[in-house]
Design brief:
Shape of chain B: flat
Number of strands of chain A: 12
Helix content of chain B: 40-55%
Helix content of chain A: 25-40%
Number of strands of chain B: 6
Oligomer: heterodimer
Structural class of chain A: alpha/beta
Largest sheet of chain B: 2 strands, antiparallel
Structural class of chain B: mainly alpha
Shape of chain A: globular
Order of helices and strands of chain A: HHEHEHEEHEHHEEHHHEHEEEEHH
Distance between the termini of chain A: 23 Å
Largest interface: A-B, 55 and 69 residues
Largest sheet of chain A: 9 strands, mixed
Strand order of the largest sheet of chain B: 1-2
Number of helices of chain B: 33
CATH class of chain A: Alpha Beta
CATH topology of chain A: Alkaline Phosphatase, subunit A
Radius of gyration of chain A: 22 Å
Chain lengths: 415, 629
């Protein structure tokens, strides 16, 4: 793996600049190498719209689940069937059959699930709940930066210009903040399209006496150069991994590319929408319909990423989240409405997987939050704090989640 | 926020000083770098004591009060005199409006509607669901009705209907156009498409919009006229039309209006009292919010502006006050969500709208303010109802806000008293003055200027016009410290580029898409902070690349709907930079332009783009020089 970076540095340094003066960005690119270990990477995936966690990680061992969801419930695992019923995880919880590609990862102990997790804020507004989960400060609207930006360890520079990457045209809320973060819709578009313009702009900004323009411009063209090498090579996912069509597969593939190129990326964010299944969440059977379709792509994309990363998964943790869960009881439109607690997944070489974590609060009427939704027994910040400190090595958790006084989530990562 | 300011201040400070002859020892600049906002000694604002030349004053006024000068503006200001010109901008009612603007605004019907009408005419998915269930009537407009019928097909829970089956139009395309016309629309040149559409009888335009299949609709978007384009947008999704109209309206006004300061202020105050277009009912509330709650008060009294936003359905919905009730007035019902006090509005009212985060209020004050506003709600919030005070859910106990007792037994006036207290508070005077100074003078404005503005604010009971007059006549405004000290926001960058080139604007939605790439999708700032007034916050790699690409594309006529007259540049290639910057370019920009001019023009199409005058213009628009105002 070290080889990859050497080739990269050689290509960039010698081919483009000769052996003479190594430009500043090159020093930044090699900063990771001289520091020793490969960078740990945290990838956050946001399922926007509030995914129905009760039909993703199915509590088939709780008979109330079947009472509350006569038309929606995923049948309990059946021997020899992995298409029409839940895939057994531990005798109580099962995966939606559309997530079958994730089962081998779970079995290999690289995938863990936390259930009944969420934000303590009672809001059922997508807008507010996403905002709170991205800022990492439930109940506080005026926070302007996001938890994943604050999660970057406070190491002295120089930092890679692609240290924090947000997939999409806009910088995600989660990555707003004082550490420089890059929004990349498509790695192949990250450039000045006019080739002469690119060189001239680089010269202009590089020579500018306007410090802000000079600084941002210089960093921009450093990042452009890093990405340029990637743009020139067609990318073939490793180990026969096949990403599904669509935005999530595309984003994860680009994240994989950046990680494998060893350009110093430490955190990445991407999101996937469509989970707001008020109507026709399920089709003719509970394992068909909108949710099943979304989960199929979701599971394929995560599994392809895992396969593509191969050994490099040792350095990577992927974490998924969604703003809140959905009502425990199905509604009259073969769907569910806005609820409270949900599930989170953590995937990576350092994850202590093969386990569904969390305290199950139960689905009896009196056990439900406001008598309608799954109760929260784990704060989402507990899970994220554990990953930020245990995986990224940023132990200053109180500045990543200001105001959070609860515990971390010990045991989720291999020591 | 604080961390961010502290870490970026060195850049800001250096940016401010760039190109300015800094008096005193060289060490002085280093001191600036080490200090943080608000703790700089008075001497460190020395650049704000250095006067501008007459020409610089003219450009400074144009750069700050307008969205960037267009050809002829500088001469006009010089002729009128800077002082008089500013005075007129402060009194927009005295300025004759550009007739071209009225023509552009005319088709944007949703901008003239009440929120009840926008809700009805451009139904949200929620309302469409209600129509599907027979609880709401079908819309009257034939195109909207056809669009709704299409969408109904998707939400209707009927097993006998195949999902997403296309709904055949009543009048098929083949009856409206000849096969040859259809072929031209699909595969013809831009001119051929235009001529087919131009020849189409206007009385059948609704049928055409309905009959066009979706791929063809998207294809024809850039060539259709304003009326047909709106109808095609309606067919895509009725509710998107409001977003389309808002985008066209805001960009057209910023580009074309002669009342430039008024447009700057509508942008400023909308962001100050931000609401997010994509939150529930705000999807149809925003046109009336901007038009009725913001625009009439941008140069009026702050107290009136504050109340017009406090009572607007858009704000009540955005910050959840509409569902805030005194818990004691609620009976717990089994299985039903119990409503209670919601503090969101109370908190943001003090933190963002009036006192500022350091304005000296406590969490207790937040709760007390929220209690005062219980019952300030919306009648039928999902269907476009207006403000009303619901006595039944109001907290009638006594409250204490910032040390002032609001006696028990009150009603709607409890909230009004809070607005009185906040609007007259010295912390508000300072907070608003500072924010205006950040927008119009510099990211880190000198404290003595803020003092002067706050004094005017308090003496005039919050007369915004008077506060701005204090700013615009101050020596700090016309100082080297403020001259080109501001980085343009994406909105300012894009509008100033269109104005500087004197481009002809047919439609603006492509500009709206570019704004998203630059990081400022209009009306879509999710957080109540609104978009930042601090220029430095807009500088990041992806956004900077987007600025460069936009500059190149605009000048070379690659932005649909915008036509730049490139011939004008060919006559005077050497003067292009000065034409667009309204001053001499920096040495590094000049060097890059000269380098570009030295590249031989290749006739081979495969060679890199030749440095034609239009490309030089593009280079200038993406230069560091053009990113500041």
């Amino acid at each position: 793996m070290q080889r990859t970076r050497r080739i990269f540095l050689k290509d960039m340094g010698i081919a483009m600049f000769g052996l003479g003066a190594a430009p500043a960005w090159l020093a930044r690119a090699s900063a990771a190498e001289t520091a020793g270990a490969r960078k740990k990477v945290l990838v956050a995936i946001f399922q926007r719209g509030a995914v129905d966690g009760l039909n993703v990680v199915v509590p088939f061992g709780d008979k109330r689940y079947y009472e509350l969801r006569p038309n929606l419930a995923i049948p309990a695992p059946r021997n020899g069937d992995n298409k029409e019923s839940a895939i057994d995880l531990d005798g109580f919880f099962g995966l939606h059959p559309a997530l079958a590609p994730l089962k081998p990862i779970y079995d290999s102990s690289n995938l863990a699930i936390v259930h009944a997790v969420g934000s303590p804020d009672p809001t059922r507004s997508h807008f507010d709940a996403q905002d709170y989960m991205e800022s990492g400060t439930p109940g506080r609207k005026a926070t302007t930066d996001g938890w994943l930006n604050r999660a970057l360890p406070a190491e002295p520079g120089p930092h890679s210009p692609v240290r924090a990457v947000s997939m999409g045209t806009q910088l995600a809320r989660t990555l707003h903040g004082s550490n420089e973060a890059l929004a990349v819709a498509n790695l192949n578009d990250f450039k000045v399209r006019d080739p002469i313009g690119s060189d001239l702009y680089e010269a202009m900004y590089g020579a500018s006496t306007d410090k802000l323009m000079n600084g941002t411009g210089t960093r921009t063209f450093e990042a452009v150069k890093m990405v340029e090498t990637l743009q020139k090579q067609a990318y073939t996912p490793a180990n026969g991994a096949k990403y599904p069509n669509g935005a999530l597969g595309n984003s994860l593939q680009q994240i994989a590319r950046l990680i494998k190129a060893d350009v110093g990326m430490e955190v990445a964010f991407t999101d996937v929408g469509g989970w707001d299944t008020h109507v026709n969440e399920v089709g003719a059977t509970p394992v068909q319909g909108q949710l099943a379709n979304l989960l199929t792509t979701f599971g394929q994309a995560l599994a392809a990423f895992y396969q593509d990363m191969g050994d490099r998964m040792a350095d990577v943790t992927v974490v998924t989240m969604s703003e809140f869960g959905r009502t425990a009881k199905e509604n009259g439109n073969r769907g569910t409405d806005h609820g409270h607690a949900n599930y989170m997944m953590a995937m990576g070489g350092g994850v202590r997987g093969s386990k569904v974590y969390g305290v199950w609060p139960g689905l009896a009427q009196e056990q439900l939050y406001e008598q309608r939704d799954l109760n929260i027994t784990t704060d989402f910040r507990a899970v994220l704090s554990e990953l930020v400190s245990g995986h990224l090595g940023n132990t200053n958790v109180s500045s990543v989640f200001p105001g959070y006084t609860g515990s971390k989530f010990p045991g989720l990562l291999v020591d | 926020m604080r961390t961010f300011l502290a870490t970026t201040t060195p850049f800001l400070a250096l940016g401010l000083l760039a190109g300015v002859v800094f008096p005193g020892p060289a060490g002085a600049a280093k001191t600036v770098v080490k200090t943080v906002v608000n703790t700089r000694a008075a001497s460190e604002y020395a650049a704000f004591q250095h006067k501008l030349t007459k020409d610089e004053q003219i450009l400074q006024a144009a750069n700050r009060l307008t969205f960037g000068p267009k050809p002829g503006d500088i001469e006009e200001i010089r002729k009128m005199g800077v002082k008089k010109w500013i005075e007129r901008q402060l009194h927009p009612e005295q300025i004759t409006e550009n007739p071209a603007l009225a023509a552009k605004l005319e088709p944007l019907e949703s901008l003239r509607m009440t929120q009840l009408e926008t809700a009805r005419n451009y139904p949200t998915p929620l309302l469409i669901r209600a129509i599907a269930m027979g609880r709401e009537p079908m819309p009257e407009d034939p195109v909207t009705r056809a669009a709704v019928q299409k969408l109904l097909r998707r939400v209707q829970v009927k097993k006998d209907l195949p999902e997403n089956e296309a709904l055949a139009p009543t009048v098929p395309l083949e009856q409206l156009l000849t096969p040859e016309q259809i072929r031209l629309l699909r595969t013809g040149s831009v001119e051929q498409k235009r001529s087919v559409l131009a020849a189409f009888p206007s009385e059948k335009i609704d049928d055409l919009a309905i009959a066009l299949p979706q791929p063809l609709r998207y294809q024809l978007m850039p060539v259709a006229d304003g009326v047909l384009r709106r109808k095609m947008m309606l067919m895509n999704a009725p509710n998107q039309l409001i977003s389309y109209d808002l985008n066209e309206g805001k960009l057209m006004r910023a580009i074309l209006s002669n009342r430039q300061l008024e447009e700057q202020l509508v942008d400023f105050w909308y962001n100050h009292f931000n609401v997010f277009l994509e939150k529930g009912s705000d999807r149809f509330q925003v046109p009336s919010y901007e038009r009725d709650a913001i625009r009439p008060h941008v140069l009026g009294h702050f107290r009136e502006l504050l109340e017009s936003t406090a009572t607007s359905p858009a704000m009540l919905f955005y910050l959840d006050n509409w569902e805030s009730v005194a818990p004691a007035t609620q009976k717990a019902a089994k299985g039903k969500q119990v409503r209670g006090l919601n503090e969101n509005y109370g908190r943001e009212l003090m933190e963002l709208h009036t006192l500022g985060v350091d304005g000296g209020y406590t969490q207790k004050d937040v709760t007390e303010v929220a209690r005062c506003f219980t019952g300030w709600t919306i009648r039928a919030p999902r269907e476009g109802g207006g403000f009303y005070f619901n006595e039944k859910v109001h907290d009638k106990e006594a409250k204490v806000v910032l040390g002032v007792t609001i006696p028990a037994g009150g009603g709607k006036e409890d909230g009004e008293k809070v607005l009185d207290i906040l609007a007259a508070h010295p912390a508000t005077a300072h907070f608003i003055s500072r924010k205006l100074a950040q927008r119009f003078v510099a990211d880190d404005p000198p404290p003595q200027l803020i003092e002067k503005m706050a004094k005017t604010f308090l003496a005039t009971h919050g007369d915004i016009r008077a506060v701005l007059e204090t700013a615009f006549t101050s020596k700090e405004f016309f100082s080297q410290g403020a001259y080109h000290a501001k980085v343009k926001s994406p909105f300012e960058m894009i509008v100033s580029a269109v104005r500087a080139t004197g481009a002809n604007v047919d439609f603006a939605y492509a500009l709206g898409n570019r704004l998203t790439q630059l990081g400022e999708p209009l009306y879509r700032k999710l957080e109540p902070t609104g978009y930042s007034n601090l220029g430095a916050e807009w500088m990041n790699s992806a956004a900077l690349l987007a600025r460069m690409n936009f500059g190149m594309d605009l000048a070379q006529n690659r932005v649909p709907g915008i036509k730049v007259d490139a011939a004008a540049y060919e006559a005077d290639v050497a003067g292009i930079a000065k034409r667009l910057l309204f001053r001499e370019p920096s040495p590094e920009s000049r060097a890059a332009i000269e380098k570009a001019l030295a590249i031989p023009v290749e006739s081979d199409k495969k060679a890199p783009a030749a440095p034609r005058p239009a490309a030089i213009a593009g280079l200038v628009l993406g230069s560091p020089d053009f990113q500041r105002r």
